[in-house]
Amino acid sequence: MPAEKVRLRIGNLAKAVLVSGQAYQDPKDALNEFVSNAADEYVQAERRGERIRVMLRRKGRYPVIAVDDTGRGMSPDRLRAVARSLFESSKVGDTRTLGEKAIGMLAFQQLGGRCDVVSRAEGSSETWLLRLERGRATAGLERERRRVRQIPGTTVYLSDLDPDVLRVLTQRKVVDYLRARRGPALARGDYEIEVIEGRSSELVLPEKPEGVRLAIPPRHTLWGRIEFALYVAPDDGRRRRVAVVGRAGTTVVDDLCELDEFAGNPWDSNQVSGQVVFEALQQTAGRRAILRDREAFPLFVDAVKAVESAVAQTVERVAREVDAQTADRLSDVIRRIFGKVLKELADLDNPMRSPNGYEPGEGGLLETERPEASGENGRGAGPEQPPDLTELLPPPADPVGSQPDPESAQPERPGSSRLPSVAPDPSPAEARSRFDSELGIVFFNDVHGDYLMVKDSETMLLDYLATLVAKEYVVYNNPRASADELGEELVRMLVRVRRHLPRRA
Which helix (H) or strand (E) holds 178? Predict the structure, then answer.
């Protein structure tokens, strides 16, 4: 016999209302539901650029939060329909709006004990109030006489607020949250959002993208277009993230890395920002995750995976360009430092030869250090004071990898034009660095662990690169020396190099 069909019903309506309204992980998510309702009203009324006001009064005897719009407003019949149509939204199927579950109004229970919906419909002079209370299965409807609206629209008052909510919903946090969640719609000019607390008012502005825009064409699917607006910038310590945008230009997930499929490079590099837009994606009830359906979500994953390699290559290219620019800037600093060091060692005529060797690469046993000269040239007259970094950074540096022109050397420093430069190694191996005697360049390994440890501090990076040059200088010129002798020679060189490093702040 066929299976019996049993109609489902809500056994405890009051409890269902309470639980449904507390499905939000963060009080800001609950507040966002009322901003969504105002935004949807503007979309349905085809009013672009209208303003939504979020007003915070967290202090005083009666704290309250209000969300106000100047839309078409609601008549008593419409307010009754709102109360009677929970879980049956009239917005279902309207891709322009976000609402679809008709439980957003119940989100007030995450914030406080009471929600007053005060509205005046177009064409009417009356203001009406719909009052909901936490955990109650009934709502009250009456004509509002105290908070009469002068123009059509709706204001939602949230009161009897929980103490934890008052600590979380500060103006700064609300502005930052709405910027992240509603940046795409704000950038398009769909509406404006103003957050007011006391005498302070701040307009929520969309984030300005930074870096190189990736030319990624949209991907067409049966469920609509998947659009990419991705930017790659150098890593400067700021957190950058890629948002996932769904229906009505609203952010579904703040950070693509929250999804297990994209929890690694390049999305967590802090170099990629922007958004991926796919209006077919749906949110879970708590507005904090993507609904992993069997239709739209797999298409989204495949589309993002398809561009992942191009994004990773751009991240690597930008990082290497920044490293090359930094090395180019510091290269001249290092050349000046070694010019002073080798001048002290009377070795400028052959700058890549140790004072104790003979010819470049020929080396020889280390001998006793020659005494520093004194007299007219000033050598041995006492330690020179190290310069500031600003004194050592001249405009502009030589292009990375270029050969200095011997003809341009100053007469009093005939070997300065042959001082070594530094540049990232185009084909790094395992070593920290290598010296190319033909080009006169010390190539450093920009993927070595030691380099990665110091690259974010220019002071430490300068010290590191200068150490590599000193190491290559000594090793190249003393190939037959023992380990102990090389160590002693390197220390002798580093002592002089570090005397001329810029003073640290």
Answer: helix 171-188
pTM summary value: 0.53
| 148-190 tens-digit pLDDT | 999 999 999 999 999 989 999 999 999 989 988 888 888 888 9
Residue 334: closest CA among 219, 276, 420, 396: 420
Tell me the pLDDT tens digit for each residue of 88-136. 544 444 444 444 444 678 888 889 999 999 999 999 999 999 999 988 8
- In whole angstroms, give the CA distance from residue 408 to residue 401: 17
Rounded-to-integer distance, Cα 326 and Cα 423, Å: 9
Find out whether 132 and 115 touch, Cβ atoms under 8 Å.
Answer: yes
> Is residue 78 helix, strand or coil?
helix
Structural contact between residues 404 and 419, judged by C-beta atoms closer than 8 angstroms: yes
Report residue 72 as tokens. 């078409």
The residue type at 450: D
How many angstroms separate the CA atoms of 20 and 22, rounded? 6
**Among candidate residues 408, 419, 411, the one with its CA nearest the CA of residue 500:** 419
Residue of 465, 477, 389 whose CA lies nearest to 423: 465
pLDDT in tens, 258-269: 899 998 889 998
pLDDT for residue 300 is more than 70 = yes
Ramachandran quadrant class, 374 (left: phi over 0; alpha: psi -120 to 50; beta: rest): beta
Burial class (CB in 10 A: 0-12, 13-18, 19+), 482: exposed
Report d(CA 195, CA 77) in Å as an integer.
31
- Domain spans, the chain: 13-203, 212-293, 317-499
Side chain identity, residue 55: M
Q: What is the dihedral angle through the alpha carbons of 183, 187, 192, 197, rounded to the nearest 10 degrees? A: 40
Total H helices, total E strands in the chain: 10, 17
Our measurement of the distance from residue 411's CA atom to the centroid of its chain's CA atoms, rounded to an integer in Å, reads: 51
Across the range 492-496, mean pLDDT stands at 86
13-203 maps to which CATH number? 3.30.565.10
Taking residue 344's Cβ as centre, other Cβ atoms within 10 Å add up to 19
H or E segment and range at residue 487: helix 483-499
Q: How far apart are the first and last CA of the chain?
A: 86
pLDDT tens digits for range 305-339: 999 999 999 988 888 777 777 777 788 888 888 88
* Three-state SS at 261: helix
| Main-chain dihedrals φ then ψ at residue 139, nearest 5 degrees | -125, 155
Residue of 189, 293, 287 whose CA lies nearest to 244: 287
* 3-state secondary structure at position 442: strand
- The residue count of the chain comes to 505
